[in-house]
Amino acid sequence: MSSAKIRLGMVGGGQGAFIGEVHRIAARLDNRFELVAGALSSDPQRATDSAAELGIDPKRSYASFEEMASREGKLKSGIEAVAIVTPNHLHCAAAKAFLKAGIHVICDKPLTANLDDAEALATLATESGLVFTVTYNYSGYPMVRQARQMVAAGKLGNIRIIQIEYAQDWLATNIEASGQKQATWRTDPDQGGAGGSIADIGTHAFHLAEFVSGLKAKSLLADLDAFVVGRSLDDNANILLHYSNGAKGMLWCSQVASGKENGLQLRFYGSRGGLQWSQEDPNYLQYTPLGEARQTLTRGGSSVGESAAAATRIPAGHPEGFLEGFANLYRETADLIEAHRQGDSTESLVPTVSDGLRGMRFIEKAVASNQAGSIWQSLEK
Amino acid sequence: MSSAKIRLGMVGGGQGAFIGEVHRIAARLDNRFELVAGALSSDPQRATDSAAELGIDPKRSYASFEEMASREGKLKSGIEAVAIVTPNHLHCAAAKAFLKAGIHVICDKPLTANLDDAEALATLATESGLVFTVTYNYSGYPMVRQARQMVAAGKLGNIRIIQIEYAQDWLATNIEASGQKQATWRTDPDQGGAGGSIADIGTHAFHLAEFVSGLKAKSLLADLDAFVVGRSLDDNANILLHYSNGAKGMLWCSQVASGKENGLQLRFYGSRGGLQWSQEDPNYLQYTPLGEARQTLTRGGSSVGESAAAATRIPAGHPEGFLEGFANLYRETADLIEAHRQGDSTESLVPTVSDGLRGMRFIEKAVASNQAGSIWQSLEK
Amino acid sequence: MSSAKIRLGMVGGGQGAFIGEVHRIAARLDNRFELVAGALSSDPQRATDSAAELGIDPKRSYASFEEMASREGKLKSGIEAVAIVTPNHLHCAAAKAFLKAGIHVICDKPLTANLDDAEALATLATESGLVFTVTYNYSGYPMVRQARQMVAAGKLGNIRIIQIEYAQDWLATNIEASGQKQATWRTDPDQGGAGGSIADIGTHAFHLAEFVSGLKAKSLLADLDAFVVGRSLDDNANILLHYSNGAKGMLWCSQVASGKENGLQLRFYGSRGGLQWSQEDPNYLQYTPLGEARQTLTRGGSSVGESAAAATRIPAGHPEGFLEGFANLYRETADLIEAHRQGDSTESLVPTVSDGLRGMRFIEKAVASNQAGSIWQSLEK
Amino acid sequence: MSSAKIRLGMVGGGQGAFIGEVHRIAARLDNRFELVAGALSSDPQRATDSAAELGIDPKRSYASFEEMASREGKLKSGIEAVAIVTPNHLHCAAAKAFLKAGIHVICDKPLTANLDDAEALATLATESGLVFTVTYNYSGYPMVRQARQMVAAGKLGNIRIIQIEYAQDWLATNIEASGQKQATWRTDPDQGGAGGSIADIGTHAFHLAEFVSGLKAKSLLADLDAFVVGRSLDDNANILLHYSNGAKGMLWCSQVASGKENGLQLRFYGSRGGLQWSQEDPNYLQYTPLGEARQTLTRGGSSVGESAAAATRIPAGHPEGFLEGFANLYRETADLIEAHRQGDSTESLVPTVSDGLRGMRFIEKAVASNQAGSIWQSLEK
């Protein structure tokens, strides 16, 4: 680990943003990145102030991502990677600019604001040979990794049932009307894209189900609602899924479920056992081998495997949380970039642009199904 | 309460049955019934032995329900009520026989084996003027009553989301192949009817959602599976629901969810708050008023209302369970019968034949929707 | 089970009492007893009214237990057993009267109001050859039985640590001042004896620790308080224990722990594993084998042994509660009486007069230790 | 926050250590410190290797803390603060050396290996005017802060009962015999001091009880054990406490409680309500106002106050854990050092040398009480 820190830039994430600070902490946690440049806000004053607050050299605080990509791509010690944490509709153009400048990309989800953009971006990213990771951050939790490893090892037998939900309540009232920043862009089709809750949180849930189960969803059927009057994007989605092996799924995501904070929960039931994990209690995994006593596996405990152990920093009973899980994706991105430095490659569990593309297809098909009156839509290309 | 105990007969529930003994304990718990007659098994020897074991006079142990209805209807001190606890396909004929003999009926769910039977039976029951209750027993739990009362009082505001699930795992393997009695008839269309898990447990969940919310489901869409090879009735069902007020629902029922014992859970989210109740932890109700601290209401506690209090026997912290909830329906049926004795009537929360009929419509429409490829089906007549 | 029901009488438990109704439901649940006589209240009118309400023949409703013992002992079909559910100070005289009349005794705890009485009563009971059971009812819970069986089977290795607590809050304010009946006698030394919370609930906890662990406490050290102004008996007790094998214990009981309803919890830690059980969630037992994943054993599940299974009525996932656990003691008392009818004997887990006596020693020594400034007191005779 | 990062050194914490890495992550999380020097191991090679791995300039990797204190104290840009994370017996000498060099100290707990050292050190620290904080890290958890604020605001009324426990199982077997590094020094009186579990974890629990309640313990009574054969320091402690206001406490700490990982739990019961917090589920606080529904307060939620909010980085439902709580002490230490830079002072909740001293008195008195056969010992000076 004595090799030089990776020089990182950031687009978006200025003062008042939530996710930008999360990315910065995640980048810092394992001491693998150094934040040295930014186009932190579309508001020039805020961009400058934010950079100053973060100790970024004023000369490397840019007014636009275009300028930043262009100049940093030419600097001798320009950034090696960029974190893109803007509203969704800006992801695509920004990512393209940095790829073209030869800079690795860490992009927040959903990948873009529409499927066409996502496909174009995925092609570009693949052709570039650069690292492109997407922060489906919940896949970084150790016990999600443990679940994946157990499924792969056959602990559940053949998976029959997948129940996934992601419920919040922060949009239970019309807070966008009062200008709350997070809410405003997420409920605006021009900035958020065609999906509301399905884009903001449903994509996480959809990704995790495939990540853990190792299965691909082949079709979906959706019933979307915008319960809050005046809202044009969905704030609640009831979705049925068919998986490649015949497994059946339900996916519920909601941002109007009064009393739910960040209620992401995964459940898998197979012919030999079941697994349950809840993001709000992330250090534990419930395992129910058919016909035996229920087990609770604990992060850091003696019963978990290598995959979870590799994603763990401190012992069992000392809770790790959201930031540590998020930081795992940064650590793994660092490993990929380090391998790239060496002209090498490495296996990784970190989500990439192809996962981001798949999430966009989920959004588009859910919208299409709903518009057609809840008709099955294929998720295969 | 000093009036004479109600003379009760039973059809089905002989040795080896599960639900018959539950009905007997429920009938006994509050000392309102006296079991005096039975047609406990279609196997004559088992019928006789079962009656002897229960202390029933051998002269009132019958070989068939027809004989029992006929004779008890004429006895001076014949039974006043009968509990029907046979496999589903026998409910209708038995219930009709007792109604015709002027005897009140307590019928297990689902009401019958098909919708036509159910409609005919409902008509007969209504015309008879007799008491006809259906043991959707989970509605007898005090905290389910509390939930209903809170919804009615507007604690949730306008209900937007209903999430109901009922998951078990006892049919995760092909136990009917080895002759397990409970499994055999429930997985046999000739005895169970057109529905498997949707009939056995889905009807409970469907009923509770309407019971608590005060809403009616107006349409459904279903995706059914029989995961265990060789099984002809569904053992897993993913169902979407539309409710009368615009609320959206998901209902999952399964008998192959490895690790689930009797996982019935109800969740309601409205514009002002949410409620969650789990049958396996029945003495508590989670209440989440929007924007306030989460609350846990406890059965017998100072924060619960009259409806729950009336269904409670012992103080908070002294858990009541399945049998007590079941017994509440018997107690309330006794109240109805007592009122009938007096030529009177009384308000009651106990499910009746019309609830039973509604459950049959749920089953038929779920099967129809599934057969049509998951198409919306109306639940209105 | 076809033998005749046991004819039961009751002393105490008239209108307004709590525990009397619990005993009656428990007696009724398995259909082994028939309540036919009573001295239900020291207030003659209430005694008469209570008997009428319970359907007891007015001729067998007595004004005093002396009269009842005397007459029932001579009747041809007099009661075979009596349940004594009065305030503590009356237990001894009543129990003696029935023993002398040849009638089996089911006595609520604590056994008497002081240790001397308890010793005399235990001697009399033993010499009588009659059945004498004491309703340390929590020992009737299936998962408490499971815990006991697992300890006996060596699952914990050598027990090192016993942590037991029993916390309530119903005496957190001075409710006895307003005449609340349950509170009044329990906080009155003349009726309750020398112990307050230690007698009312501490004895349960003390008994359970020995019941499950199979160990005997050899000494204790106590720090008692009466936190509510004007109260003369303890409402909170912090107690240290030394067990026969070198294990160390802590016992906390309180009736002023604001927010606790009936928080009885048992924890045992040995060289090979641990066990945890909570009365408010009684259908589950937490088992933590050292170095392995935590397990949750469920009542009725496939992982529990014979002892728990024998105390279980309905399948896993269908919660049983306080009444069912209490009823197990009645059922087992019925088995003992049935054996006595046959001139036989039978093994049983139901607590008897010797357990009651041991509880009295616990109370007396706790009071003595506290008075001496928290000095160790021997619990050996 | 744009002021220069604080230059930090570290004593101890080389390869193979646990707590050193925790301190480093905590220091890094909020970007307020920069690790620039170290005496990371008493083994010179390991010291050098560890420094290299951490990117510390080899010239500032020292073979001893004496050399480090001496040289860094004279450097123009020498360290401003040092984190001392060695075994207990080295804390005192190291801390003195840095204080004398004018360098602020962040010291792990317990403060020293004996009470005399602690008193001398506390005097020196106070006279120095330097910042001296002690990492009773659990006090950094937001919901512990919330509990403290609620108690101060009178939510519990007068506190009557304090129940604190801290149970682990990592010393349930004789792992020190096999040379496990963490175990070896903690079970060795020469390195750990007179206390085993009471020093390692009991001091945390003792501190938290006072921190939250705002009360001081005035006396204690202890029953200590070393259950594992061959162990000379306690691995289990049962302790009774008397608090200044008349409240009574129990403190259990154990490192042999099979199945417990890091089970630190705090419970407080007062005349008006109760509070419960568990370190393994740290984002929630149970609040039970007497006679009302139980409440669950969540970190980041709308029901928590300023104190918790100030210690929170991300929204409710996004779990924070052990590292974030630990980092709060570093952040607050940074605030103190920043104020010191300005010649200013600031209020803070971070534990200081006087808390460390109090912990040492707790250890010494617990040992003394146990040796005297569990006799009350004063905790007042």
Features of the shown structure:
381 residues, alpha/beta, five-stranded parallel beta sheet, 14 strands, nine-stranded mixed beta sheet, Dihydrodipicolinate Reductase, domain 2, homotetramer, 2 domains, Rossmann fold
> N-to-C terminal Cα separation of chain A, in Å?
41 Å
Poorly predicted ranges of chain A: none
CATH class division of the largest domain in chain A: Alpha Beta
**CATH topology of the largest domain in chain A, what is it called?**
Dihydrodipicolinate Reductase, domain 2
CATH 4th-level superfamily of the largest domain in chain A: Dihydrodipicolinate Reductase, domain 2
The tally of beta strands of chain A, per DSSP, is 14
* Total domain units of chain A: 2
List the secondary-structure elements of chain A in sequence, H or E.
Answer: EHEHHEHEHEHEHHHEEEEEEEHHHE
Largest sheet of chain A: 9 strands, mixed
Walk me through the structure.
4 copies of one chain form a homotetramer. Chain A has 381 residues and is α/β, with parallel strands linked by helices. Chain A folds into 2 domains: 6-130, 3-Layer(aba) Sandwich (Rossmann fold), CATH 3.40.50; 140-318 and 359-377, Dihydrodipicolinate Reductase, domain 2. Chain A has helices at residues 19-29, 44-53, 65-72, 88-100, 115-128, 142-152, 181-186, 189-192, 197-213, 306-310, 322-341, 353-371, and strands at 6-11, 33-39, 81-84, 104-107, 132-134, 159-167, 217-225, 236-243, 248-254, 263-270, 273-278, 284-289, 294-298, 377-378. Chain A has a 9-stranded mixed β-sheet with strand order 13-12-11-10-6-9-8-7-14. In chain A, strand 12 (284-289) and strand 13 (294-298) form a beta hairpin. In chain A, helix 1 crosses helix 11 (322-341), helix 3 packs parallel to helix 4 (88-100) and helix 9 packs across helix 12. The longest helix of chain A is centred in the last third of the chain and has 20 residues, at 322-341. Chain A is globular. The termini of chain A are far apart. Chains in contact: A-B, A-C, A-D, B-C, B-D, C-D. At the A-D interface, helix 1 and helix 11 of A face helix 1 and helix 11 of D.
